[in-house]
Specification:
alpha+beta; Immunoglobulin-like; 4-stranded antiparallel β-sheet; 3-stranded antiparallel β-sheet; 30% strand; elongated
Length: 148
């Protein structure tokens, strides 16, 4: 004699499976790590208009800047700054996936207008590079993207 399973059991199993899947997703999402771009994002948001102005100023130089990666060195070519003496700036290597791998350097250009960075300072992966400088009391900002 065969016993027939009542349709209520199927509904209970389906409901229990749904609950298990939802609880698994909630558990996994609560353990997910999120890195903020900056810790003080409210204060930085207020200052963001200045960054927009710097990016507008930097647009005229965006196509002139070349980032070349080698096995040992990252060369950032800024040909329009090779004869400038009063350039103050920085280069930030921002790693979107892990803020612990970010790196900031002072902009130091040689007589050819090239800034060199040792690749060993950076882990392999995708980086957003923010090149910012001040020249003749005007601020500039250019963003580039590289993969090491």
């Amino acid at each position: 004699m065969k016993t027939k399973i009542h349709w209520g059991y199927f509904i209970a199993v389906l409901y229990a499976g749904f609950v298990v899947i939802i609880l698994t997703l909630v558990f996994k999402s609560s353990n997910q790590k999120f890195d903020l771009v900056t810790e003080n994002y409210y204060e930085d948001e207020i200052k963001y208009q200045g960054i927009i102005d710097q990016k507008k100023s930097g647009q005229e130089f965006e196509n002139q800047i070349q980032v070349l990666t080698d096995t040992n060195i990252i060369s950032i070519d800024l040909p329009f700054l090779k004869n400038e003496h009063e350039v103050i700036g920085s280069i930030q290597f921002y790693r979107p996936s892990d803020e612990k791998k970010d790196c900031i350097e002072k902009l130091q250009i040689d007589s050819n207008g090239i800034h060199k960075t040792d690749v060993k300072k950076l882990a392999k992966g995708l980086y957003n590079i923010e090149i910012s400088w001040t020249n003749n009391n005007k601020k500039y900002l250019v963003e580039k993207r590289i993969t090491i």
